[in-house]
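Practice record 12: protein with coenzyme A.
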Amino acid sequence: MHRERIRHPGLQSKVTTALEASRHIRDGMTVGMSGFTRAGEAKAVPLALAARAKEEPLKITLITGASLGNDLDKTLAEAHVLARRLPFQSDPALRKLINEGEVMFVDQHLSETVELLRTRQIGPVDVAVVEAVAITENGGIVPTTSVGNSASFAILADKVIVEINLQQPDALEGLHDIYIPKRRPYREPIPVVTPESRVGIPYIDIPPEKIVAIVVTEKLDSSSTILPPDDETRAIASHLSDFLLNEVKQGRLTNTLQPLQAGIGSIANAVLHGFIETPFHDLTMYSEVLQDSTFDLFDAGKLNFASGSSITLSKECYHRVLPRLNDYKSRLILRPQEVSNHPEIIRRLGIIAINTALEVDIYGNINSTHVSGTHMMNGIGGSGDFARNAYLSVFVTKSIAKNGVISSVVPFASHVDHTEHDVDIIVTETGLADLRGLAPRERARVIIDNCAHASYRDALNDYYDRAARRGGQTPHVIEEALSWHARLREKGSMLP
Ligand code: COA
């Protein structure tokens, strides 16, 4: 069956084992692999690398689109193959090595990685490893459930290894829209003017002689780890839809809203899922990851079109959607992440961006990445690409974490991924803070009153009152600003 999927006759002879293919990768190299939020990653060559690392010195810089599925980041971390890793991950074992200082993790805006590679500010990529559903007659690579950075990896690398995955449905062919920006000074505007715009070609165009090996695989993508909506996430969704309904009433939006982006994770997925219960209709998405909620909205007749860079689904949704992909195909596009997340397009389309915070401070600065200011969780991902350039930049979080010993609203964010200047709306299950047009002193009251958990509200008001008496545009009791995090570290709780 793999012969039908390798349509370029000259490439049939390149089929080999994962181990043999992996020998193109040597100690010290930089490898660009497909894979974006657990979708469409190369599945066999990374395992061969992990096996080889037991027998020989082998450390690489691994660049992907985003996180890998099938526990590959875990396997590679535990085999100590990774010297450097960028631009995103979400695996506990790798996270541990990053936080211990073994793996150098470069946490990047997802739209920027290939631009840095293309201009040789980082890299070069020695070998690209890309999962594909097929190789076309002219040697074009047809990606699977994600595009991520795969196209640029294949274009920029000296050698390309293709993994043909026979379990990925043929129907994926035609879904992708591969557009590569021209080099400067010949760069032109990216002509995406609606989420539906097709501006590229449906495969990765490289000279076929660059394909040095083809490996045939049959492993499925792993399911997403998102949790179903709970009372808190339902309340967050309800506050946000009430706010958007009021925007419609005020004449600033219509019931079709603006194209939606929703970040990774359970909370953002639940919020989007909540739109099923609203009067909004004929919605569109211009996002990076398409989760279960995208297909729930399609099935509820609420969503007209979704553009993303990957499809990452729960087990139930995967088995519901993938066999019926042809039913959704005319309403879907998968793009390179530099296009799905491009600031120019996000600003042009006027996106409503919904991303998740770990913590927010009383002025609206957002920490999405660092637990207690020091320990990496996953990475900034695309949240910065969208938040900075959105029509409405929304951050959602539960007001408390870890059974209440952590307040997600703190006096001072212990790490800042998104500054107050990039944040319009904060929503927790307790309420919504509309920060548009507010100065820091006004923001503090609105955030504390609407978003803080009752068990922390008095302490936050007390902090703000004492800070305000000291003065300043953004008042702080500076020696106390991180004392909540210090208390958590020393006593196991932020509670006063
Ligand atoms: N301090 C410490 N831990 C915290 C915390 C805080 N202030 N707030 C939440 N957490 C913990 C939760 O307890 C949970 O821990 P667990 O995994 O041990 O259960 C974990 O963080 C995830 O939080 P959860 O509430 O389940 O939210 P989520 O699954 O929606 O993930 C982020 C939230 C922030 C980790 C996730 O959205 C992320 O990585 N964002 C950054 C990247 C991004 O936004 N990309 C967007 C474009 S795709």
